[in-house]
Amino acid sequence: MSTDTHPLPVQSGNRFDNRRRAFGAFLGPLLAIVVWWLPIESLSVPAHRLLSIMSLVAVWWITEPVPIPVTSLLGPALCVILGVAPMSEAFSNFANPMIFLFMGGFLLAKGMMVNGLDKRIAYGIMSMKWVGDSPRRIFLAIGIACMICSGWISNTATAAMMFPIALGLLEAIRDMLAANGKKIDLGNYKYATGLMLMTAYACSIGGVLTPIGTPPNIMMLGFLDQLAPDAPSISFFTWMSWGFVAMILYFITAYFVLWRMFPADVKHIKGAREFIQSHSRELGKWTRAQKNTIIAFGVAVVLWIAPSVLSIIFGPHSDIMKSFDNHFPEGIAAMIGALLLFFLPVNAKEGKMTMTWKEGVSGIDWGTLLLFGGGLALGGLMYTTGLSDWIGSGVKDILGGNPSEIVFVALFCVMALLLSEFTSHTAAINLMGTISIGTAMSLGFSPIPIAVGVALSSSLGFMMPVSTPPNAIVYASGYVPITKMIKSGGIVDIIGIFVITIPIVLLLVKAIMGV
User: Which end of the chain has fewer CB atoms within 10 angstroms, the N or the C?
Assistant: First the structure.
């Protein structure tokens, strides 16, 4: 997306990014060499070498002198070259079942976008009678549409879709006020800032709903399966049981904070209803492709929540439950739904299906899959070499030997949030995931609450344009001063961490999982 509409801050951001990358390009190798030659007698040779590699990878994930997926491939490659692990072990996690759950989710999301189902859902929400031309209700409807869509498709894609809709509404406001003799500069108009921020924040908030809603969720599930195989498994429905509560509470917080800071100065937006309805009419009637996409998506969702239903009816250890888990694990459920898009016909005579292979491939975020695979690979090696235990013991000593669980959870949640403010949340999870889980196990805590807490916290990066792609998209509009984003984002972050995330993790998650 072009950023020419807001040149000065963007240029400043580029200077900062260039310096950050240059600094990281130098610091990463230097730190790796220092760690390599540092005498650490309590570490085995493979663990010591892995620590050196992780030092390089961590710095490069944060500073990005090369693309993050490239760094994610470099880490396992260096592990093979330097004798930490054979190639079959170092790269095995690039075929982890969680990869295919994510891949299926990407394909389903692409099917929704290609066939216009996402816009139909968004405009369907905004054209409801209760919305009307009230700026407050439009503000709420924009947020709800963003939140619902981003629970199932990419936060970035949702923001890119909703961004022009929000801009169109702001143009309608400007025209309405101009007709009444009041000229406004949208760049200094409070409501414009609030609507842009609501669009960005709601896209990130919606991602916490499902395991496939945002990369940190599924990455932490992958780390749990790998590093804590004896811990109770977290099903799709189980995640949604606390993800829904977190999403609603985050959304309510963001809504009230933003509306209080950026209220509208009019009670009605003349032309807003017509704007929404005209765009809704342009979508026309439901197409066969959209109906097929709903079917494919519905099949995946049914297969995802079926284990929880069967567990309630027949018991968690019943033969039917074991059979279903063996034949329809969540990754297979996602792939079944995704593959249906290539089999359900739109025009059988012409051989036209709901989605073409070319469209499907373009919908897969290969970079994220490589990042995920690299994180799992290094996380697994940290566990097998004993490096995670060593780091856990060090954190344990820093915390005073036997910290309370609430202090432990709060510390890692805040660390995950702070890191995600200045680097991508996927990179933050790769760094914090294995450390937090390993430390929890060394302290005798269940790894599940901390894993969920770190995942949720990494989605709360609301303060900076670089924190999340939705933030960057709305910042490029020129309607969001950086000081306003920092102030409003900081308030939502603080409330989100201490009032919502930590209580959910320590009360709801522990109660549901019985840990």
Answer: N
Residues 160/1, Cβ–Cβ less than 8 Å:
yes
Query: 3: domain range?
Result: 1-90
Contact between 393 and 442 under an 8 Å Cβ cutoff? The reply is yes
Structural domains in the chain (count): 2
Q: Record the pTM.
A: 0.78
User: In a 3-state reduction of DSSP, which class is residue 89?
Assistant: helix
**Tokens 């950086």 belong to residue:** 482
**CA-wise closest residue to 231 among 450, 411, 508:** 450
The verdict on 310 and 360 lying in the same domain is yes
Nearest alpha-carbon partner for 167 in 480, 459, 512: 480
pLDDT of residue 180: 61
- Give a yes or no: residue 490 inside a domain: no
Residues of the chain short of pLDDT 50, as ranges, are 1-13
pLDDT the model gives residue 188: 66
Query: Do 106 and 29 belong together in one domain?
Result: no
Instruction: Decide if 341 is inside a domain.
Output: yes
C-alpha span between 104 and 424 (Å, rounded): 22
Per-residue pLDDT, 177? 67
pLDDT of residue 174: 73
Distance of CA 107 to the CA centre of its chain: 16
The pLDDT assigned to 271 comes to: 67
Query: Mind giving me the DSSP string for 246-264?
Result: HHHHHHHHHHHHHHHHS--
Q: 456: which 2 tokens?
A: 């949720």
- Cα–Cα distance, 374 to 95 (Å, whole number): 11
